[in-house]
Amino acid sequence: MELTHVNENGEARMVNVGEKEYTHRIAKAQAVITMKPETLNLIRDGKVPKGDVFSCARIAGIMAAKKTHELIPMCHPLPIESISIDLEIISDTQVKAISTVETTYKTGIEMEALTGANVAALTIYDMCKAVDRGMEISECYLILKDGGKSGRYER
User: Fold this and answer.
1) What is the pTM (predicted TM-score) of this model?
2) 92 is annotated as an active-site residue
3) In this prediction, what percent of the chain has a pLDDT beyond 90?
4) Of the N and C termini of the chain, which has fewer Cβ atoms inside 10 Å?
5) Alpha-helical segments (H) within 27-147
């Protein structure tokens, strides 16, 4: 398997996408944050001192997905058409952040989806760290990608 972001000398490089075709692309990723039940109750009841945790996490995830190319050196700036950050309470101690990102462009949008989900989870951590420094972010992975030459991937 050939690594696309490494040249023949093993040096990092940005892939040239100039000759690639525009195709519709979608990617979905997740991150799970685990916390004390008391912390999740504070979020659910709107009693976190910093404010509305889920609204802030959604906005942060959207902003992060849009700035992925500024954070990860070999990512291209992409014309993002749609971003959604869904936050789902999945147990009495866990919240799942799911990021779905779409574009019509020459390269994939997986990194934007992964960044959005992770930053949403990080924002939950930031807003709740005063009451729970033991929170843990895990289960970060790509759920789905579709479009482009490599086609569809579903976890």
Assistant:
1) 0.91
2) no
3) 82
4) N
5) 37-44, 53-66, 68-71, 110-128
